[in-house]
Specification:
Blueprint: H1 13-20, E1 24-29, E2 36-38, E3 41-43, E4 52-55, H2 56-64, E5 68-71, H3 78-90, H4 101-111, H5 119-142, H6 156-178, H7 180-188
Antiparallel strand pairs: 1-4, 1-5, 2-3
Helix pairs in contact: 1-4, 2-4, 3-5
Amino acid sequence: MALPVSLRNSITPPELELVASEELVEIIPLISIERTAFISGAYGPLRPPNKAKLPLWIAMNLKMKKKCHIVPPDWLSVDFLQNRLAQETSRPEFSEFPFRFAEIAKLLLDVASDDIQNSDKVRSLLKDIREARQAKSRDGLQKIDHSELGLPNLCSMEINEIRPFFVRAMGVLTHLTRDPEASSRRLDV
């Protein structure tokens, strides 16, 4: 959801992608590497053709050097995404996705689209899902109630997009509900 610059005081999408790059993904190594220690932990050994789990940032680095294939997560398939798109368009609640699905999908499609079956169709489905979820977010924000709000299954990117608007809106609602008479007098002026 594109917001005006005045409302953008949240984490940027590239910063969210950096955080998401710590998520573990499976790879099929094309080279052997002994166990290697990093600040975030020790990973390996890598022995082809055995699968290994690594943080996404390491997997992307190896993929760019053509030293592995990244195994896409189950949710990054045409069948799964078509099912979720049908849910998004037919149900009022948000369908369930991994918390950082938008960032992980973007990173994998940018670096390892050749490892994802029907990557163009996957991109298109993700775009349709994003648009459906943005429409639900907009509808939900129009119905904000200061006493209770539940938005289960929002992903980190979506939360980040609505946070600035939501914080300001909740501040106004709180102010209006504390002293409704003062607020109406001020509006009459």
